[in-house]
Amino acid sequence: GDGKYVQFNVTYTTKSIITKAELKNYYNQLESSKDRILIGNEPQDTGTKGLIKADTDGTTAVAADAPLKLSDIFTFSYDEVTGVLKAEPTSKVSAGKVQGLKYGNTGATNYTSGAEISVPTTGLTLTADTTATTDVNISDVMSAFKFNGTDTISGFPAGSSASTLRASIKVINAKEESIDVDSSSHRTAEDLAE
């Protein structure tokens, strides 16, 4: 009633939907970082591993001609009308594996024992206004498409799970007033909010 207070208890989650503007910005960041090196090409016979290719005998490993960059394995596209961001594997990827290159040491028989490099084949499309921040973390482009140091390159990074939060909102000195929205009254919601 008049002169007292009104209290509202609100429950909400921290999950939010990614907008077209946010997704376009994320796409631009991916494009700017496409020359980022995922795996270096300076492996040793023992110790330091890196990107290797097969020598002419097919089993001996030698250092790859160049490091593996993000642009070697994915191209990115963004449709401004539909708000869809896609990561598409390049011709260097087949059946979820980088072709002709492995991760390991140089030396005899090391190409055979080197690790095939896996890349994601699903979850490569993000859609604005439907993809949620809990589905993917677009705040740090460097956390996307990272090599795990063993045999796998990740895709879009998952976001943190949504939290359910509660808030209690108290309006002090509330004034109770009714208006007839169908009448020709000149009272507005702004008047009542004052």
UniProtKB/TrEMBL annotation:
Domain named Low molecular weight S layer protein N-terminal: residues: 1-190
One Pfam family cited in the UniProt record for this chain: LMWSLP_N
Annotated InterPro entries: Low_molc_weight_S-layer_N
Protein name stated in the entry: Surface layer protein A
